[in-house]
Amino acid sequence: MSFLRFTARRLAEMAATLLGASFVIFGAMYLAPGNPASFLLSGRSASPEALKAINDQYHLDEPFLLQYLRWLGQIVHGDFGRSITYRTDVSRLLADRLPATLLLVTMALLLVVAIGVLLGWIGAVRGGAVDSTILVATTVAVGTPSFVAAVLLQGLFAVKLGWFPTGGTGDGLGQMLWHLALPAVALALYLIGMLARVTRAAMQEVLGQEHVTVARSRGVAEHEVIRRHVFRNALGTVLTTGGLIVSTLLVCTVLVESAFSVGGIGQLLELSTTTKDFPTVQAISLLMVGLFMAVNLVVDLLHPLVDPRVTLAPKRSAA
Q: What is the pTM of this model?
């Protein structure tokens, strides 16, 4: 299957999946206890006219299917509706808060890839006491949830030592990088341990294969054997894990952003869920699903480039 045909097929699958996800997301919000009208009224009694005006504005009194089709039509045209809590367009809220989340996820991802792959490489190649130390360290990292890491890092480096801000994002890129340093470490810690263990296991498996022994017997330098024959063959497994890591980062950012009061998508999702801001929750949920699928598509397209044994052609049964 050609690259273009494969990409077109995957994009069609993504569109169908996104359509199904949109129905589930809208239905879940529709069935959730409470309603936006009660929040807008803040527990106050309202006249039938005022209640009708709210229902008309947000189309709350229309049948479920009609509400869904209306919402889906707006989404197609880039209109995510109007936030009930913030009294502004959801699109504007997302545009204001998305950069902080994307920067946080990017910083955490760079930490995960750089440190995780390095530790896995060293553990697989060195072995002995070095490998045991790395295994212990990565086990501790894997066993530390992102929220716990956030609380510990904030208490030590922000509150006690005062090296970093306790929260917020600051103004300008430099300030944002400084403010997001601790949240990025808290977000990356668990995944650093996971990627290090995956890299180590993948490289150790390749180290025992015949082509590595042959390369060494031919006098190829050890660093070339590790780079060209071991790590390159293990890279497919690392890349596949990388797709899962990005998805996990997007999920865990909700907890970390809340702990550090980062004004990003994650914190907005938590606040909107608490206040039953249905349009905002629906938009963020759909955005998350879209990002997940985009990451998986990128991984599928890159996999054949890093591992020649993988092709884009679908498997066929033997005749």
A: 0.81
